[in-house]
């Protein structure tokens, strides 16, 4: 594998992610410590079990995936000690040289949104990874505090756009007063934020890998976004090469395929996890970068 171009740690998130995807493959590994998965790994459902699980995943996949995506809810359910584990994971990932996308799906208005942005995007905050998932369904403009702070600190956002849950279509496929679908308007707003950025902007979208014809049905122009497209649902949730090509079409090179259960099921041994991540990364590269 050829080495990625050198990218400064001060470069915007989009540029750093593009380099990581070129170097390690377009794979993001989720850190989703479900109770059942902790049990399968022989770990207690406690902050100590959470820490063992999280740091084991990090050790296994650092250098073999473009990014790590801890799901904040599984840390928050353990209270302050769980959040301390999330803070440690984010710091350890930074030291290991792998990008982190904190999957918290925050979305609110005014000073509350500003406070969420401060917690997850401010320099010096222990919860601030390299990017954050956010929800735009109080209006894309409500994300302004997060968009502005992410831009000023070189971090990224992944904005929910077309999700794979059945209930999502009732909002995302709905039309605005000008006849544009909500999903298409979210994508267009992200594209506006990314205008002129190379090789990728830092405002990405979350688009489920199993949404089928949703992008076409909603007239959502994914190729015009000029930002990364985080695609949950790869592997254990059913999406393979054919589904990725079908959903993303000409936007495939911007896709960061996200796999959680497909990699985590190979634990608890580090070598097994690493082998699963390497295989998933190769499959994502073949599906998204070939041809």
Automatic annotation (TrEMBL):
GO terms for molecular function: orotidine-5'-phosphate decarboxylase activity. PROSITE patterns: OMPDECASE (PS00156). SMART domains: OMPdecase (SM00934). GO terms for biological process: 'de novo' pyrimidine nucleobase biosynthetic process; 'de novo' UMP biosynthetic process. Its EC number is 4.1.1.23. It catalyses: orotidine 5'-phosphate + H(+) = UMP + CO2. Keywords: Decarboxylase, Lyase, Pyrimidine biosynthesis. Pathway: Pyrimidine metabolism; UMP biosynthesis via de novo pathway; UMP from orotate: step 2/2. SUPFAM superfamilies: Ribulose-phoshate binding barrel. InterPro entries: Aldolase_TIM, OMPdecase_AS, OMPdecase_type-2, OMPdeCOase_dom, RibuloseP-bd_barrel. The active site is at residue 105. Gene3D superfamilies: Aldolase class I. Residues 26-276 form the Orotidine 5'-phosphate decarboxylase domain. NCBIfam families: pyrF_sub2. Belongs to the OMP decarboxylase family. Type 2 subfamily. This is Orotidine 5'-phosphate decarboxylase. The lineage of its organism: Bacteria, Bacillati, Actinomycetota, Actinomycetes, Micrococcales.
């Amino acid at each position: 594998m050829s080495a990625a171009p050198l990218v400064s740690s001060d470069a915007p998130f989009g540029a750093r992610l593009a380099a990581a995807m070129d170097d390690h493959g377009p794979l993001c590994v989720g850190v989703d410590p479900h109770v059942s998965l902790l049990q399968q790994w022989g770990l207690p459902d406690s902050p100590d079990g959470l820490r063992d699980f999280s740091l084991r995943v990090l050790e296994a996949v650092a250098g073999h995936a473009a990014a790590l995506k801890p799901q904040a809810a599984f840390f928050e359910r353990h209270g302050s000690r769980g959040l301390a584990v999330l803070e440690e994971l984010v710091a350890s990932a930074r030291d290991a040289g792998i990008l982190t996308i904190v999957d918290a799906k925050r979305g609110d208005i005014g000073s509350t949104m500003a406070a969420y942005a401060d917690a997850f995007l401010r320099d010096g905050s222990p919860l601030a990874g390299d990017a954050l998932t956010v929800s735009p369904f109080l209006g894309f403009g409500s994300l302004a505090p997060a968009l502005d702070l992410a831009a000023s600190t070189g971090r990224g956002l992944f904005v929910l756009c077309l999700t794979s849950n059945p209930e999502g279509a009732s909002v995302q496929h709905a039309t605005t007063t000008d006849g544009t679908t909500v999903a298409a308007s979210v994508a267009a707003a992200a594209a506006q934020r990314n205008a002129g950025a190379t090789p990728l902007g830092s405002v990405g979208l979350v688009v489920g890998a199993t949404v089928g014809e949703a992008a076409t049905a909603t007239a959502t122009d994914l190729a015009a976004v000029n930002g990364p497209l985080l695609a949950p649902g790869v592997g254990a949730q059913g999406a393979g090469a054919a589904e990725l090509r079908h959903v993303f079409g000409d936007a495939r090179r911007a896709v960061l395929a996200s796999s959680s259960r497909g990699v985590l099921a190979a634990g608890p041994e580090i070598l097994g996890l690493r082998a699963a991540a390497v295989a998933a990364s190769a499959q994502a590269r073949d599906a998204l970068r070939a041809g």
